[in-house]
């Protein structure tokens, strides 16, 4: 055990890390009198702020600590409106004026592109929200071993913060969540203990369509509902009486050690096993495990931008890579001759086919396949696309997929990204194939967090 005593020091925030926390460097002397760097991570601080901080083991190279006092304040600092902000890990920037958040996100995209040799002037200002609150249509809450329902504590995955409210979810979603929390407490139902792998209740997923108003409540538990019939009957009664918008009430068995919202058995308690949502005038069915954009207001902007920047034509063939359930496929399909969607998740492809059928769209082909192999197969059966779109996960598409796209030589590429860093390295792979980056439009889908989306277009040089 270290004999080094905690030390209080003054630090200046020089940058923000990938999680939104302030970074500072303190230079000190070691036992030989040589300079030694101590890098500090200080959450809930902003650029340029001077803070007093107590470090528990100042002899280490890196330490994380909360500020004791802010000595000099960034003028963009505001009072966070949520009572849980200082502890809850759901938002990291509620203490930052929204315009400041947007500027930082623009700078992040510019920096990522500049590091790959692109002109940062190609990046437009980030498109924000008129009202950056109550924007999420899906939330996943966790039960503590004591049965409380909430979100993980910031920086501590094992600690659950019991919530009274959540300002980024719709009010009806929060009300339904609080009702489930009360129900679990009234029946003294034990939450799941990750260390002991004991307990009943694991998670509550709440999702709501802002277009139709329909709600889904999905309780994840380690046992079947018939083992707790009295409590389950009471849950059904409460939901039926108080939340008429709940069109899907699910009890999902999950005994896996992995702490994810997955299910081995699905029990439908009331309604149907999906809800209806809408995007760009198209109707989608959403199951509990369906990926769908969680900010519908800004997602609509993404779709509009992708269409505007991609300039689809009725005579063209198009490939939609990482197509999911067809969020972009359906709007584009009505504007091109034929469209082929590729997605590795088979359930998403089945949903995409069903969504196309539900909306009377007949010029689409969907393939459940790995992206790179899927492109090869589609090029053989579908033909050469003039327009290709990709919306990869946060890890990016990767060099092999990007080079395969380059060899396919579509005239135009629309890249929708949720990670500026992987986006920048991905598109760099297209340069040897003759592609020029035309424009990048960042869009803020997750206010008060570090995340930023982008829509970009690249054109094949003639």
How helix-rich are the residues, as a percent range? Answer: 10-25%
- Global shape: globular
Radius of gyration: 24 Å
Strand runs, count: 23
Describe it.
It contains 9 helices and 23 strands. It folds into 3 domains: about 5-70, Nucleic acid-binding proteins (OB fold (Dihydrolipoamide Acetyltransferase, E2P)); about 105-130 and about 295-460, Vaccinia Virus protein VP39 (Rossmann fold, 3-Layer(aba) Sandwich); about 140-280, OB fold (Dihydrolipoamide Acetyltransferase, E2P). The model has no long low-confidence stretch (mean pLDDT about 95). The strands form 5 sheets. The chain has a 7-stranded mixed β-sheet with strand order 10-9-8-11-12-13-14, covered by helices on one side. A 7-stranded mixed β-sheet has the order 19-18-17-20-21-23-22, with helices on both faces. A 4-stranded mixed β-sheet has the order 2-3-4-6, with no helix packed on it. By secondary structure, the chain is α/β, with parallel strands linked by helices. Strand 11 and strand 12 form a beta hairpin. Helix 7 packs parallel to helix 8. The protein is globular, with a radius of gyration of 24 Å.
What is the topological layout?
Elements lengths: L6 E6 L2 E2 L5 E8 L5 E8 L7 E6 L6 E3 L2 E6 L25 H18 L22 E6 L5 E5 L2 E7 L8 H16 L14 E8 L6 E7 L7 H14 L3 E8 L11 E7 L3 E5 L2 E5 L9 H15 L6 E5 L7 H5 L4 E6 L2 H13 L5 E5 L2 H11 L5 E4 L8 H10 L3 E6 L2 H9 L6 E9 L9 E8 L2
Parallel strand pairs: 4-6, 12-13, 17-18, 17-20, 18-19, 20-21
Antiparallel strand pairs: 1-5, 2-3, 3-4, 5-7, 8-9, 8-11, 9-10, 11-12, 13-14, 15-16, 21-23, 22-23
Helix pairs in contact: 1-9, 2-3, 7-8
């Amino acid at each position: 055990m270290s004999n080094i005593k905690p030390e209080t020091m003054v630090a200046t925030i020089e940058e923000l890390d990938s999680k939104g926390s302030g970074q500072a460097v303190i230079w000190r002397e070691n036992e030989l009198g040589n300079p030694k760097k101590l890098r500090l991570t200080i959450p809930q601080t902003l650029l340029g702020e001077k803070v007093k901080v107590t470090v528990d083991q100042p002899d280490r190279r890196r330490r994380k600590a909360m500020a004791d006092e802010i000595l000099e304040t960034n003028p963009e600092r505001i009072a966070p409106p949520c009572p849980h902000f200082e502890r809850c890990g759901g938002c990291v920037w509620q203490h930052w004026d929204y315009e400041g958040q947007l500027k930082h996100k623009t700078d992040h995209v510019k920096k990522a592109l500049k590091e790959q040799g692109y002109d940062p002037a190609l990046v437009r200002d980030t498109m924000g929200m008129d009202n950056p609150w109550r924007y999420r249509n899906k939330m996943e809450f966790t039960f503590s071993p004591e049965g409380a329902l909430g979100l993980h504590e910031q920086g501590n995955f094992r600690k659950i913060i019991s919530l009274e409210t959540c300002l980024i979810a719709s009010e009806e979603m929060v009300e339904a969540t609080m009702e489930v929390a009360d129900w679990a407490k009234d029946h003294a139902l034990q939450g799941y203990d990750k260390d002991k792998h004991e307990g009943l209740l694991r998670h509550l997923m709440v999702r709501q369509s802002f277009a139709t108003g329909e709600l889904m409540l999905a309780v994840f538990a380690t046992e079947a509902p018939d083992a707790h019939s009295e409590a389950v009957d009471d849950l059904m009664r409460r939901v039926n009486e108080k939340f008429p918008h709940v069109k899907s009430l699910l009890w999902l068995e999950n005994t896996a050690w992995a702490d994810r919202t997955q299910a081995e058995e699905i029990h439908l308690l009331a309604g149907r096993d999906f809800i209806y949502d809408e995007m760009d005038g198209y109707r989608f069915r959403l199951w509990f495990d369906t990926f769908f954009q969680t900010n519908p207001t800004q997602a609509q902007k993404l779709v509009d931008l992708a269409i505007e920047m991609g300039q689809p034509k009725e005579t063209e063939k198009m490939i939609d890579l990482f197509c999911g359930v067809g969020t972009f496929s359906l709007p584009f399909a009505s504007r091109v001759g034929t469209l082929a969607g590729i997605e590795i998740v088979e359930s998403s492809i089945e949903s995409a086919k069903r969504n196309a059928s539900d909306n009377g769209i007949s010029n689409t082909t969907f393939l459940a396949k790995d992206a790179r192999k899927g492109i090869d197969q589609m090029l053989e059966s579908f033909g050469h696309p003039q327009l290709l779109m990709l919306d990869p996960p946060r890890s990016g598409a990767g060099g092999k997929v990007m080079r395969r796209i380059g060899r396919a030589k579509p005239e135009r590429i629309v890249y929708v990204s949720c990670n500026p860093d992987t986006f920048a390295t991905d598109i760099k792979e297209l340069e040897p194939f003759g592609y020029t980056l035309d424009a990048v439009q960042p869009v803020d889908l997750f206010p008060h967090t570090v995340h930023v989306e982008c829509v970009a277009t690249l054109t094949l040089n003639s």
